[in-house]
């Protein structure tokens, strides 16, 4: 009897926790929903327009790669500005974190709200893959094992809380990228030092023509090399991000120039401090959220209209210096563009029997791009502790160069009054798409390059 019960329990753990949707429901991706699952229709009052296919061609101001992306809507002016004086009028469409920023920095904090531009778009082959994923993708082992998905959004019509998080982690970003990620931990006085990080990434999951079986359980290869300041220069982090983290947890290695050895690093993940962040973010806050989801329970609260950072071409400009962006208390709020969009709201609570410095997080996921655009973060006392925002823009080169990416990410610590800005590259070369060979991310190759 006991043996039968144990077998039944094991089978239950392995069984899918998310059922495939029916063909009839998947057909909505060709009618009332966009090909990645957003509502095609605009809002009842017209403030959110109908999705018309997104921004798929470069605007006239863009001369072509390798030029930096220009603002396709230079004529747009703010519809209104939210300030301490009128914040109560708009609070129904603000996150708890945004409201807390108004309360803490009321004399300087504001949000310029622009006309909503539904620019999100992906290549046709991503749409085709997303439709197939809708019929085939499944999660098992408490949501930690993904199967039956490739290239497109895994769960365009989400039913459970961790599905939008998987959609964010595997949203289409091209085959690979070589980019600079500039971080600044800003003090209460507004002072900062820059940490310069080069990131080289291969999005294996986004490879055309590959099957799920050919991934070897890896969705993303990630190499991080710190270039400055001198005390951190030469530090390397290598990650092979697995899709079934029950079968095999994330593979990670770190290289310390003082030790001159690339070592396995199981601590690269969860709530361990992020590289060069001065303790202002955890490893799983890179790209707003990454890695395993097994320390939380995930609840899909629903969809809501909210003012979120969007079309952040102004923040991406190479006419700006970092000192133009970074201010005391918060970034220069003259620069961000906020728009009214629909977001999926997902609530994550730490599971009994496990730990994380963040007891609770509320995620706001843009329905059009599946990018997490804001997070409210709570401490062990259930007090709002930190606030994240991701200022995103559409990559509009055309063809395979379509998708959303952050121009700037922020983590505000409400308790200390400090904040972290990351993903900036205003004074660095433009990010470039690059299709790396998998062997580039082999630990032996990385170790050889590091010790040259």
From TrEMBL:
Q: Which Pfam families match?
A: DUF1329
Q: Does the keyword Signal apply?
A: yes
- Chain spans, region Disordered: 266-286
Question: What keywords are assigned to this protein?
Answer: Signal
Keyword Signal part of the UniProt annotation? yes
- From which residue to which does the signal peptide run? 1-19
Q: Which residues cross the membrane?
A: none
Q: What is this protein called?
A: DUF1329 domain-containing protein
């Amino acid at each position: 009897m006991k043996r039968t019960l144990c077998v039944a329990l094991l089978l239950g753990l392995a069984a899918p926790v998310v059922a495939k949707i029916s063909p009839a429901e998947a057909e909505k991706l060709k009618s009332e929903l966009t090909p990645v699952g957003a509502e095609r229709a605009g809002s009842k009052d017209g403030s959110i327009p109908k999705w018309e296919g997104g921004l798929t061609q470069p605007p006239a101001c863009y001369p072509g790669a390798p030029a930096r992306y220009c603002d396709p809507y230079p004529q747009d002016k703010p519809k209104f500005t939210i300030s301490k004086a009128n914040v109560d009028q708009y609070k129904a469409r603000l996150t708890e974190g945004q409201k807390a920023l108004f309360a803490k920095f009321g004399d300087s904090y504001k949000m310029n709200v622009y006309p909503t531009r539904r620019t999100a778009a992906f290549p046709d082959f991503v749409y085709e893959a997303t439709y197939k994923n809708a019929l085939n993708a499944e999660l098992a082992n408490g949501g930690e094992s993904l199967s039956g998905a490739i290239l497109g959004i895994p769960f365009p019509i989400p039913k459970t809380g961790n599905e939008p998080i998987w959609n964010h982690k595997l949203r289409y970003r091209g085959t690979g990228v070589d980019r600079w990620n500039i971080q600044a931990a800003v003090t209460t006085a507004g002072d900062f030092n820059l940490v310069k990080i080069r990131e080289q990434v291969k999005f294996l999951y986004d490879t055309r023509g590959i099957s799920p079986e050919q991934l070897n359980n890896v969705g993303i290869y990630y190499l991080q090399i710190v270039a400055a300041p001198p005390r951190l220069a030469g530090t390397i982090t290598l990650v092979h991000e697995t899709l079934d983290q029950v079968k095999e947890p994330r593979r990670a290695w770190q290289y310390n120039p003082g030790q001159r050895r690339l070592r396995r690093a199981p601590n690269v993940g969860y709530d361990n401090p992020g590289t060069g962040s001065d303790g202002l973010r955890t490893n799983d806050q890179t790209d707003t959220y990454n890695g395993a989801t097994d320390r939380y329970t995930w609840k899909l609260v629903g969809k809501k209209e909210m003012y979120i950072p969007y079309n952040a071409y102004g923040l991406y400009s190479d006419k700006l210096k970092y000192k133009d962006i970074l201010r005391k208390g918060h970034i220069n709020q003259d620069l961000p563009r906020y728009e009214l969009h629909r977001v999926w709201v997902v609530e994550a609570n730490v599971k009994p029997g496990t730990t994380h410095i963040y007891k609770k997080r509320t995620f706001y996921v843009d329905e059009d791009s599946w990018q997490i655009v804001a997070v409210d973060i709570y401490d062990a006392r259930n007090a709002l502790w930190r606030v994240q925002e991701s200022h995103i823009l559409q990559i509009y080169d055309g063809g395979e160069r379509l998708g959303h990416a952050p121009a700037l990410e922020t983590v505000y610590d409400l308790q200390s009054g400090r904040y972290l800005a990351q993903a900036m590259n205003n004074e660095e070369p433009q990010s470039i798409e690059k299709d790396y060979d998998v062997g580039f991310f082999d630990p032996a190759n990385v170790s050889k390059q590091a010790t040259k």
